[in-house]
Amino acid sequence: MVMLHGLGDSIEGYRWLPEAMNLPWLNYALANAPDEYYGGYSWFDFAGDIVPGVARNCKLLFALLDDLRAKGFPTEQTTFGGFSQGCLMSVEVGLRYPHRFAGVVGISGYVCEPEKLLEELSPCAFEQRLLLTHGTLDPMIPFAAVREQVNILKSAGLRIEWHEFVKPHTIAGEDELDVIRKFVRAGYPDVAGE
User: Fold this and answer.
1) Rounded Cα distance, 53 and 57, in Å
2) From 38, 90, 121, 176, which residue has the greatest number of CB atoms within 10 Å?
3) Within a 10 A sphere around the Cβ of 1, how many other Cβ atoms?
4) CA–CA gap between residue 157 and residue 166 (Å, rounded)
5) Domain-wise residue ranges, the chain
């Protein structure tokens, strides 16, 4: 599972994830965004035109995924996920990368340009499983706007599992982790004992 952090965070903010997921057969790769941001990192400049930053980091993340494939971690056995800015990047990459993932998980994020994304989908995008979650109390990324973006993507035929939580801009503890865990586990049907 490759996990991308949110604005101003780093891989240190997700060291708890492997234990919390409680899927001992799953390996984890935590990636730092390339731009420094007040003691953490940023995937793009959210205050300006985010499109160039998203495009640049799609290329960087494609390279990371290509490198993982070369090292024996096939995309079909990789879950790609992120929180907030990391959610946006995981959806953008997950639907553009030319190989199918075991699953794409997006938590408390949004889509940069849904219509543009739909024009640039990879050939396997409609086979891709996505789990998107969001909080009805999110003060940073308004819930209604995100739900509308998700509806645009779903109406185009993408396989999106959508979950709403009564939460602010965070992960809603075990309730949300359980939804994520079940989604991730379903992407690995051949794992013994699962």
Assistant:
1) 6
2) 90
3) 21
4) 27
5) 2-186
- DSSP-based helix, strand, coil % in the chain, nearest 5: 40, 20, 40
- The per-residue pLDDT string of the chain (194 residues; one tens digit each, 9 = 90 and over) reads 999 999 999 999 999 999 999 999 999 999 999 999 999 999 988 777 788 889 999 999 999 999 999 999 999 999 999 999 999 999 999 999 999 999 999 999 999 899 999 999 999 999 999 999 999 999 999 999 999 999 999 999 999 999 999 999 999 999 999 999 999 999 999 874 54
Distance from the first to the final alpha carbon of the chain: 16
Q: How far is CA 187 from the centre of its chain?
A: 15
CATH topology of domain 2-186: Rossmann fold (3.40.50)
